[in-house]
Write a structure and sequence with these properties.
about 450 residues, 16-stranded mixed β-sheet, 2 helices, about 5% helix, elongated, disordered N terminus
Length: about 450
C-alpha cells in the first residue's frame, strides 16, 4: 500500500467501515496488503453498540488483544497468512504483525503496550519534518491503524508509527512514541490531540476554512477548535486556511484553498499545496519568520507570494512563486526528480543560487549562475527572463543569457529587450527561469537536466 497520503489513509478506513461485520461477535483475522512488497497485517473489527475496552500487547513473536467489553472475539480463517487463536471469549493471540483496528460506534478505549512516550524531535533541519510520500509498493509500514469510529473515544498509540482516526465524538488521542499521523474531522466538540515523541502530524478532511495555531495549541474551524499538543507537522483542509507554526521547526502544508501559512520562528518547511494535488494549485501566502526556512511552492501557477523573513532561506519551485527581497537562495532541482518528495538526491541544497542579481544596468541584469558538482564535467544552460505566468496566455520574453563551464560559480549577464527594460525600470515582477544540463563524466552517458526558477522585483 502507498504511504501515507492523507487521502489514501482515510479512504482505506472508510472502505473498511463499509464492509459487512458480524452482529454476534467481534472478528479478527490475519490478512495481507496488495503489491510487490505486500505484507501481512491483522484486522480487528468490533460490533455495533459496544463500548469497547481494547488492550493490545506486542511482545516477541506474538500480539495479544483483549477486549473486555465485547461479547466474543471470533478468529476468522486466514488465507495462508497466519492465524489468530482465541484463548478465551475476549482474548486472542496472533502473530506480531501490524494491527488495523475498527472500533465502530460506542465510547471506546484502546491502549497499546509497549506505548512509550518517546523523545521529542531535536533536528534543526526542516527536511527532517517533511512528509514522506514514498510508494512502498504494498508494504505496511505503520504499526497500527486505529479507526475509533463515532462516540467519545480514548486512543493511546504504540511506541512506533501509528495512524489514528478519532472520527466524531469527544475524543482524546495520545500518539505516544513514533511518528504518528492523526486524521481529524471537526465535529463541533473539542478533541484533545497529543502527538507524543518523534515527528507527529495532523491532517484535516474538511472544506471549510481552518485556523490552526501550533503555538496556541489549537486547530479547527474558527469557534470549533481542537486542542493540539506536541504536533510538528500540519496538513490543512481544502478551504482557505490560516496555519501558524511555533518557534521550533515545523512542517506546514496548506493543501487546497488560498492559504496563509506562517512558519514563525525555527527552521521551517512551508508549503502552499502539497505536490500530491496532481498539479492543481492555489494562490497562497507563505511566510517564514525567523530561522533558516525552506519554501516548497510546487506545483505550478497561480502565483503564490513568499515572505521569507529573517535567516538564510531557500526556495524549491519555479516561476509561480513571487519572492520578496528577504529570500536569499533558490535550490537547483534535478529533472526528472521525485514527483512529490523533497529529497537530497534531487534537490541540491548544497549548491543553491542567489536570488538577487549581482549587478544591474538600464539594459542588463547579471546573476551568479551555479554549475553544481554532481559527477559531471561541467554545465551549459540558459537564464530566461519573462513576464510572470498567466493562465492560457504566453509569457512576454524580456531577455536571455547563456552559460557554459566547469562546476562552480560564474556571472551570467542577460541583455534586456525594450519590454524587459520597461519591466525592470517599472519595478514589475520578473520571472527568472533557469534550465541547464550537467555533462556526464562517463562516456556515452546522457546529460542530467536541472532547473530552478522564481519571480522577483529585479
Amino acid at each position: 500500500m502507498n504511504t501515507i497520503t492523507r487521502a489514501a489513509l482515510i479512504a482505506t478506513a472508510v472502505i473498511a467501515l463499509l464492509l459487512p461485520a458480524s452482529t454476534s461477535a467481534s472478528t479478527i483475522e490475519v490478512t495481507a496488503s496488495a503489491g510487490t512488497n505486500s505484507s501481512e497485517y491483522i484486522e480487528y473489527r468490533t460490533t455495533k453498540g459496544e463500548n469497547n475496552r481494547v488492550r493490545v500487547l506486542f511482545k516477541g513473536s506474538t500480539m495479544v488483544l483483549v477486549d473486555k467489553s465485547t461479547k466474543r472475539i471470533r478468529p476468522k480463517r486466514g488465507a495462508g497468512f497466519g492465524t489468530c487463536r482465541a484463548t478465551s471469549r475476549q482474548r486472542v493471540v496472533c502473530p506480531n504483525f501490524p494491527l488495523y483496528a475498527f472500533l465502530r460506534d460506542g465510547n471506546d478505549r484502546l491502549s497499546v503496550a509497549p506505548g512509550d512516550k518517546g523523545l521529542p524531535p531535536t533536528s534543526d533541519s526542516p527536511l527532517a519534518y517533511a512528509e514522506s510520500y514514498e510508494d512502498t509498493e504494498g508494504a505496511v509500514v505503520e504499526k497500527m491503524l486505529i479507526d475509533a469510529g463515532s462516540g467519545d473515544d480514548f486512543v493511546s498509540g504504540s511506541s512506533l508509527n501509528d495512524i489514528i482516526l478519532p472520527r466524531s465524538g469527544l475524543d482524546r488521542v495520545e500518539g505516544r512514541g513514533g511518528p504518528d499521523r492523526i486524521g481529524l474531522q471537526p465535529d463541533g466538540v473539542t478533541d484533545k490531540i497529543i502527538g507524543g515523541g518523534d515527528v507527529d502530524s495532523v491532517s484535516y478532511s474538511i472544506d471549510v476554512p481552518l485556523l490552526i495555531d501550533l503555538a496556541a495549541r489549537t486547530g479547527g474551524p474558527p469557534g470549533d477548535p481542537d486542542t493540539l499538543a506536541q504536533i510538528e507537522r500540519v496538513h490543512g483542509g481544502s478551504g482557505d486556511d490560516v496555519i501558524r507554526g511555533t518557534d521550533r521547526p515545523d512542517a506546514l502544508y496548506g493543501e487546497g484553498g488560498n492559504d496563509e501559512v506562517d512558519g514563525r520562528g525555527g527552521n521551517d518547511l512551508v508549503t502552499g499545496d502539497a505536490p500530491v494535488t496532481g498539479g492543481v494549485a492555489s494562490a497562497n501566502r507563505l511566510i517564514g519568520g525567523d530561522g533558516d526556512d525552506i519554501f516548497d511552492t510546487r506545483p505550478g501557477s497561480p502565483t503564490s507570494t513568499v515572505d521569507c523573513g529573517a535567516g538564510s532561506d531557500s526556495h524549491v519551485g519555479g516561476v509561480d512563486a513571487l519572492l520578496d527581497p528577504s529570500c536569499e537562495l533558490a535550490v537547483i532541482r534535478i529533472v526528472p526528480g521525485s514527483f512529490i518528495s523533497i529529497e537530497s538526491e534531487t534537490e541540491l541544497f548544497d549548491d543553491p543560487m542567489k536570488v538577487a542579481p549581482v549587478a544591474k544596468t538600464a539594459n542588463t541584469v547579471t546573476f551568479e549562475a551555479v554549475c553544481p558538482q554532481r559527477d559531471n564535467t561541467g554545465c551549459n544552460g540558459t537564464i530566461v527572463l519573462q513576464s510572470p505566468p498567466v493562465l492560457n496566455e504566453p509569457p512576454v520574453n524580456y531577455g536571455i543569457g547563456e552559460f557554459a563551464g566547469p562546476p562552480g560559480r560564474a556571472n551570467v549577464t542577460v541583455g534586456l529587450n525594450a519590454a524587459g527594460q520597461a519591466a525592470v525600470a517599472g519595478n514589475q515582477p520578473v520571472a527568472v527561469n533557469i534550465q541547464m544540463e550537467l555533462q556526464p563524466t562517463a562516456t556515452n552517458a546522457p546529460p542530467t537536466r536541472a532547473q530552478l526558477g522564481w519571480q522577483a522585483d529585479l
